[in-house]
Amino acid sequence: MADRPFQGTKESFWVSNRGTILVVEDERAIMEMLRVGFTYEGYEVIAVQGGREALDRLQEGGVDVVVLDIMLPDVDGFEVCRRIRSRGWDVPILMLTAKKEIEDRVRGLDLGADDYLTKPFSFDELLARVRALLRRSGKKSEAVVLSAGDLMLNVETREVTKGGKPVRLTPTEFALLELFMRHPRRVFTRETLLNRLWGYEYVGDTNVVDVHVSHLRSKIGDRPPRLIRTIYGVGYAFYPET
Questions:
Q1: For residue 190, which phi and psi values (nearest 5 degrees)?
Q2: Distance of alpha carbon 139 from its chain centroid, rounded?
Q3: Dist CA 187 CA 179 (whole Å)
Q4: Domains (ranges, CATH) in the chain?
Q5: Which backbone phi and psi does 62 adopt, to 5 degrees?
Q6: Residue 73 and residue 187: Cα distance in Å, rounded?
Q7: Interior/surface letters 48-63, b for 16+ CB within 10 angstroms, e for the rest
Q8: Are 25 and 31 in contact (CB under 8 A)?
Q9: Per-residue pLDDT of the chain (242 residues; tens, 9 = 90+)
Q10: Is 55 helix (H, G, I), strand (E, B) or coil?
Q11: Which helix (H) or strand (E) holds 166?
């Protein structure tokens, strides 16, 4: 896929082909969440439920990173990781595990995994780790600076400025703003934002989203007609052209 200009803000920036992710996960709900989430972010996603199918697909090539669950119905994630490395494939591997024991994490890393994440996890943390793996493997996966008028967000340094002045955001507020700026005019429901920022197993009131949006608006001086607009009865959307 060729590089393409992104015209969502007043100052255009360039987004590279973000790559192909192989998701290996036997829990259908999680697999679908990952497939939809990564596709939403512009990645090509190949989703499989078994270790053997994952190895067959890797044999074909063209995969930039593997998100690999440990608990699989046929060949478990540890063995899949071992076989990938024994065959000389250097594709980055991020392992997902419900196990919290240190020895399991150490075992995965010793077998050649590049990173791991323990369930439950927030999708945005997983996404950040995948981006880091792609950067380390030499694949440019994202624009560094997002802008909307005089609002600037630097993805790599995690700095935000408004009118040239620094804006101090919490990690959740930064993730929320980055998500909005990456997807201008796209409507996010409160449930989608909860899943993305707080994790798919979050149990709580969706009002937490409203509270964080309110704080974010205040910090970036977002006044009517607003960059972050309330879509009544649905959720929120980011409109860079105020």
A1: -60, -35
A2: 16
A3: 11
A4: 17-136 (3.40.50.2300), 156-238 (1.10.10.10)
A5: 85, 10
A6: 37
A7: bbbbebbbebbeeeeb
A8: yes
A9: 333 333 333 333 333 357 899 999 999 989 998 998 898 888 899 999 999 999 999 999 899 999 999 999 999 999 999 999 999 999 999 999 876 777 778 888 899 999 999 888 889 889 989 998 988 877 655 557 899 999 999 987 889 999 999 999 998 899 899 999 988 999 999 988 888 887 766 656 778 999 999 999 999 999 999 999 999 989 999 999 75
A10: helix
A11: strand 165-167
Q: Residue 148 corresponds to which amino acid?
A: A
- Between CA 12 and CA 14 the distance in angstroms is 7
The closest alpha carbon to 34, from 176, 198, 195, belongs to 195
Pairing of strands 20-24, 65-69: parallel
* Identity of residue 89: W
Question: Do 233 and 181 touch, CB atoms closer than 8 A?
Answer: no
Cα separation, 20 vs 29, in Å, equals: 20
Q: What is the pTM of this model?
A: 0.65
